Amino acid sequence: MAAQRLPVRKTYKLYIGGKFPRSESGRSYEVFGQDRKKEFLANAAQGSRKDVRDAVKAARSAVSGWAGATAYNRGQVLYRVGEVLEGRREQFISEVAASEGLTRPLATRVVDAAIDRWVWYAGWSDKLAQVLGNLNPVAGPYFDISAPEPTGVVGVLAPQASSLLGLVSVIAPAIVSGNTVVVLTSEDRPLPAISFSEVLATSDVPAGVVNIITGRTAELAPWLASHRDVNAIDLAGAADAADVSWGELEASGADSVKRVVRPAGDGADAIEPDWSVTPDLHRVRAFLETKTVWHPKGR
Amino acid sequence: MSGSVAKSQAREILEVTSPTNSSIRSWLHGLPGVDQVGCEARATGLATRSIKTSSKAWGIDLAISMIDLTTLEGADTPGKVRGLCAKGAAPDPSDPSTPPVAAICVYNDMVEVARAALHGTGIHVAAVATAFPSGRASMTVKLADTSDAVAAGADEVDMVIDRGAFLAGDYRKVFDQIAATKEVCARPGDRPDAHLKVILETGELVTYDNVRRASWLAMLAGADFIKTSTGKIAPAATMPVTLIMLQAVRDWRELTGSMVGVKPAGGIRTSKDALRYLVMVSEIAGDDWLDPQWFRFGASSLLGDLLLQRQKQRLGVYSGADYVTID
Amino acid sequence: MSKFEYAPAPESRAVVDIASSYGLFIGGEFVEPAEGGSFKTLNPATEESLADVSQAGAADVDRAVRAARRAYQRVWGPMSGTERGKYIFRIARIMQERAREFAVLETLDNGKPIKESRDVDIPIAAAHFFYHAGWADKLEYAGFTPAGSAAPKPLGVVGQIIPWNFPLLMLAWKIAPALATGNTVVLKPAETTPLTALLFAQVCQQADLPPGVVNIVTGAGETGRALVEHPDVDKIAFTGSTGVGKGIARSIAGTRKRLSLELGGKAANIVFDDAAMDQAVEGIVNGIFFNQGQVCCAGSRLLVQESVADDVVRRLKRRLQALRVGDPLDKNTDVGAINSAAQLARITELAEVGVAEGATRWSPECTLPKNGFWFAPTVFTGVSQSHRIAQEEIFGPVLSVLTFRTPQEAVAKANNTPYGLSAGIWTEKGSRILWMADQLRAGVVWANTFNRFDPTSPFGGYKESGYGREGGRHGLEAYLRLDSAPSTARSTRTGGSH
Predict the structure, then answer these.
(1) What does R_g of chain B's alpha carbons equal in angstroms?
(2) How many CB atoms lie within 10 A of CB C349?
């Protein structure tokens, strides 16, 4: 029997401004598989509030380019992400299986759904203005038009359980319209998100459009939610996150009049929804502003 | 101001040794544009001013004194013109305190009739000239037409601009014609020159940008008055058009220090309308223009309604057509 | 010859009967408040007391919410959209019939010129009801739900809090879409301007609107707080200051109450050298002196291209000299009274700050009445972005003039504020308008016009100016239950280390 080859392990880092830095804090934490064996998978970077700050800065500086790109161009770039995802399908199946403790067939279904979800959103880029915009028939000699625009920088608490399908289901609706995002990954299942960032880095998505931070949700989320340069926040990942109160996060965003997508659930309870359900445009609309422009009509 | 003075002023304003079409064009097209909707909204806003009691009585008398009582018909006769002159001098026989009108406006072959009829009243005689109303004649004919009026003793000449030339972009031609007409308005010796009122015929210029440019072009060429319309083309005077012309004379005064008059003509039929125009004169050009020397109404039927309203003010009861003379 | 003096032309007060005191409108009738408190509402132009108005306490708010809940469950919720729409049409028509009454009452209670209440506030308020009435049975066409699905559902009981600057118009912006989408309402008008809301309650009675569908509770901040914090309210819609809006957002955080906010602004009105100058000057005047500048979307920062700044300011000052400040009931009045002593104090203070900061203050000559709350139209020149008068919402007839050199600089300065409600652009160059409109971070961009409002046109802010839109198809969204129902969700989490 030949000697078993020692695999080359991957170092999982953060993804900020198109680069893959370690946490400025120098910290990392152990990530384990979710199957019965709970085997050690990797050390993930344990992001800090300063990493959040840097990510928000990167996201802000990417807004004008990404929002200002043509919708067609954004659609092309996002579809390209789908292509690269497909090429890395096997890698994601293994990672999702390990991270979520799924059987291989189940993990395959999840990864396929994630790729299809991404492509579904990618196709929306150049339809949103038509579907969500209007010419308004005002009572006067004015041309009056309302069209959606991205709100700016969106903070995203990625779902804790669904490490890839859930992740793309919260990133895609935010960026398809031209927002940029700072994503706090699932705390215990961060690895597919970091691999996903490698996909982004190799598929024409401009630096800073998506920024991904791994670490402790309870430590990082308050900094993201209270950051005054973050226009909106998706609290999906507050469900089942240790020591996280989504109400407190929402309240800390109030000072900058943040747009908030609350986690699913009733009352104070937050639950993670079934991400396999086909979405509607709710999450897309949540991160859009409607701009209305008036102009007189005259000779 | 004589025609030659106007020309030298134009050279100064345009900063050229001789006004060319392109120098006039750059100057006119350098004026701020007019937004139709905003301009009309402003005029509508001014029309909501509510004029009551003493201001209204004052406004009615002022409006009467600003009227260029007009007859410009093929069927005009000496009798018709004499009747109009009598009416202009004493608009309301039942009330001698009624002010006379500013001028009687006729074709130039009726100037002598009007002059005789108005002798001693102080009321001016205005003659339309330059192949009124279309202006489609040779310059020789237009100037001869004007000379006739001036020779016959017209105090004021209402000329028409060549709208065709204006719309074709031949601003120099329009300028030259106005300036030449202005020269012909001059009288030798101590006799006062005829005042030149330049009719833009805004109904044919159509856009407000054109109205503004035509106003400035006329002033540049020496107009003493700018006038909206011949009364033969619809629409004649409107509030927004007059608003733009009032802005033009206001801004011209700021530029040159000299005042130019404004005359909306045609389409102003009621006292309410007339008062709205006066409000506009006051708020846009300023109270200096609230004077027959600087603002006129070209109208025929307006006088009747002003008299009815005047009687209502005086008697406190509504009056009727039988109490206002027709002439 | 003397100047053209307009004699006073006051609108008659006789068209409106003001009661000496008003109860709360709950469950279709006027009722006394549980604790019996009341406050006076003043005519800000004279400081005379107009009426005693009930102070709603927490118990009264609770009673109103219960009435709204009952109406929602028993009558308004189950009713077909067609029937609901007919009630709203009725309301619109009655408002039109009683327009003069509403206009005079609004002017008395608010201080705004009668020409504005008559020509803007009341007609547009009625138009809002008319527009939304038609939506009531067409919601499945509004584009919020997939084609072929049933009409989207309402939220339930909506608490609405409105400001004093456009009392009836803001009421219409709030109540019309709420009713059209099938919600019932508890509305709190502003403390200083409750009267037209109470007259609107009578309109609801005349329209035979089912009891409890619209409830009106009068009071100050505490009443509003009780409404926001009431556990059986499904949604809060608020228009007012950014400070209070933030407090509301904080207060409902962690609940399932929805929220829409229409907050403050510090709009830039940007004038380029090629603008249609006479109309631009009108737009500047309308932008800041309409409703005494007490407008969230007021064009309070004039950004003028440096090359024409002197000319624009000169024209502006000349124009302001023709403004008529005085009796709001006079049909010739352009600028009326400030709504309250408190607001006047705030304006006065910020104007003094402007002087202290080194800006140059100018007002046209005008004689202000002795009684009442008055502030002359004021222009500050030589203002910088860092001045407080260029940053803070003054909410009064005070214009700050700043200059810029290039379109980029204009955009940068316009966007350099936490607010993002509105902006104005004046240029005759079409492509520049479209470029500017793209760049400006504001919910409403008026190009070559300003302060236009229409029921079909969505209105609302970016950034700290709030979220949600009012008016148009977009405005319906804030009153519909659209996100996927939580009950269908399930956790896919199969394990975990917590």
Answers:
(1) 19
(2) 11
The reported pLDDT for the residue numbered B1 is: 63
A299 CB neighbours in chain B (<8 A) are 36, 206-208
Is B48 within 8 Å of C331 when comparing Cβ atoms?
A: yes
**Catalytic residue positions of C?**
262
A270: Cα separation from own chain's centroid: 19
CA distances A33 to A183, A191, A252, C192, Å, are 21, 10, 33, 63
Would you state the pLDDT for residue C489? 39
* Segment A260-283, tens digit of pLDDT: 999 999 999 999 999 999 999 999
- Distance between CA atoms of A63 and A152, rounded to whole angstroms? 6
pLDDT tens readout for residues B25-57: 999 999 999 999 999 999 999 999 998 888 999
Question: To probe the interface with C, which of A29, A103, A130, A257 has the most C CB atoms within 10 Å?
Answer: A257
- Gap from A146 CA to chain B (nearest CA, Å): 21
- For residue C247, what are its two tokens? 């407090």
Q: How far apart are CA B102 and CA B262, in angstroms?
A: 13
Query: What is residue C470's DSSP assignment?
Result: B
- The answer to whether B280 touches B43, Cβ cutoff 8 Å, is yes
pLDDT tens figures, C73-84: 999 999 999 999
State whether A299 and B38 contact (CB < 8 Å): no
Angle between helical axes of C122-135 and C167-180 (0-180°, round to 10): 0
Work out whether strand C301-305 and strand C398-404 pair parallel, antiparallel, or are unpaired: parallel
Select the residue of A140, A297, A299 nearest B207 (Cβ to Cβ).
Answer: A299
pLDDT at C148: 84
Indicate which CATH number applies to the domain containing B210.
3.20.20.70
Residue A1: its pLDDT value, please?
A: 56
Total Cβ atoms within 10 A of residue B73: 11
User: Which domains does chain C show, CATH number per domain?
Assistant: 13-262+468-481 (3.40.605.10), 268-447 (3.40.309.10)
C149 and chain A in contact, CB less than 8 A: no
User: What is the DSSP secondary structure assignment for residue C213, as one 8-state letter?
Assistant: S
Backbone angles phi, psi at A43, to 5 degrees: -95, 125
Residue whose tokens read 């405005």:
C475
Is the pLDDT confidence value at C379 over 50? yes
Q: Which residue has the tokens 């709208």?
A: B163
Domains contained in chain B, number: 1
Indicate the range of C5-19, C221-235, C287-301 predicted with least confidence: C5-19
Residues in A touching B35 (Cβ below 8 Å): 296, 298
pLDDT of residue B296 exceeding 90: yes
Instruction: Check CB contact under 8 Å for C456 and A101.
Output: no
Give the sign of the dihedral formed by CA B28, CA B30, CA B35, CA B41.
Answer: negative
| pLDDT beneath 50, residues of chain A | none
- Dig out the tokens for A130 from the structure: 């038509």
Domains along the sequence of chain A with CATH: 28-296 (3.40.605.10)
3-state secondary structure of C322: coil
Say whether residue B48 is in contact with chain C using an 8 A CB cutoff: yes
Tell me whether the omega of the peptide bond preceding residue B192 falls within 30 degrees of 0, making it cis.
no
Whether the pLDDT of residue B326 is over 90: the answer is: no
Give the residue numbers spanning the domain of B90: 3-323
Instruction: Give me C299's structure tokens.
Output: 């064009």
